[in-house]
């Protein structure tokens, strides 16, 4: 069932002449900036693309708790621990809003979870990298949440009502996450030599994986053209990656850290930075399941799901009993 729901829409975009009257009317609504709501008619491809993107986004928020959760017990102070717990809980909440948005399209959360666990669905490549030191928690907030915000702020204006509304709330919380990450980095760079070195090392390891979060380069992006025509995506992958570099390079300079790219240079003519592309071979290897932490991350999710089965079953049994009792009254 799920496979039918998410089949790729391919690179091509239907021209007006190829559209049915219904599809043309739908496209008119999108072009006029109207929101599409769950009960409105929509092309199958639109629904499938949304389920794929929102589902993948939800899974990313849930799996994204793991690298940071790894440091909750080792946070350097009580205040840092409390902040990190709050952040990780926020990510769980984001996952839940997004699963709810996907459910309005006729797919259940259980189906989405099964599809993640058996490899039919993905989560963001970034969460397949390890968090080796406390500075990595700073780098995740600064760079990973920074990249997530760059990608998600435009999605607040996307065409699907439930997704765009979920994004408004999520972006507010992500801004706090980004600030706390930058704050950790500030503390590290103003600390001892060893702390500065740790901050630089975290930047060295997280820079290119953060650039990969925006997806493959535009020439290799399968879905961008159709997703942009439907306003499921508002920008291309490369546009957002460039904006992220332009925003982040001065922040690194402020921190006194060096972005690990000898080609990074301000280009007056284009009004932005020149920079090196990530290693796309590494990106596709991570997508194929061969990143440094793929097996651990998915293993942890499957284990949590299996071990929580009795809780879900208990809750369902209780809900069924209550419903039966209420029906009898
Ligand atoms: N990782 O044709 P495109 C967060 C896949 S949330 C894995 O360009 P599209 C919060 C793509 O699915 C981070 N796979 O694809 C947080 C497709 O494969 P498919 C998540 C990727 O969809 C912070 C294929 O490559 N954010 O971090 C990736 O048009 C800290 C071809 O690519 C979202 O999901 C990748 N990076 O564009 C939590 C935002 N990139 O499905 C905890 C919403 C591409 O055909 C701690 N999503 N692929 O098999 C989007 O904006 C888009 O889906 C893109 C990809 C831009 C990610």
List keywords for this structure.
329 residues; mainly alpha; two-stranded antiparallel ribbon; 14 helices; 2 strands; 66% helix; globular; binds Phenylacetyl coenzyme A
Tell me what the structure shows:
With 329 residues, this protein is mainly alpha-helical. Helices cover 66% and strands 2% of the residues. It has helices spanning 2-6, 21-31, 44-63, 65-69, 78-103, 109-117, 134-155, 161-189, 193-212, 224-229, 237-255, 280-290, 294-307, 309-328, and strands at 265-267, 272-274. The protein has a two-stranded antiparallel sheet. A hairpin with a 4-residue loop joins strand 1 and strand 2 (272-274). Helix 5 packs antiparallel against helix 8 and helix 7 (134-155) runs antiparallel to helix 8. The two termini are 37 Å apart. Bound molecules: Phenylacetyl coenzyme A (FAQ). Phenylacetyl coenzyme A binds at residues 8, 52-53, 56-57, 60-61, 64, 91, 122, 124-125, 140, 144-145, 148, 151, 212-216, 221-224, 227, 233, 237, 287.
The percentage helix is 55-70%
Q: Evaluate the radius of gyration.
A: 21 Å
Largest sheet entry? 2 strands, antiparallel
| Gap between N and C termini | 37 Å
Structural class: mainly alpha
Strand content: under 5%
Q: What's the overall average pLDDT, rounded?
A: 95
Which distinct ligands sit in these coordinates? Phenylacetyl coenzyme A
- SSE run: HHHHHHHHHHHEEHHH
Q: How would you write the strand order of the largest sheet?
A: 1-2
| Number of helical elements | 14
Low-confidence stretches: 1-10
Work out the number of β strands.
Answer: 2
Overall morphology:
globular
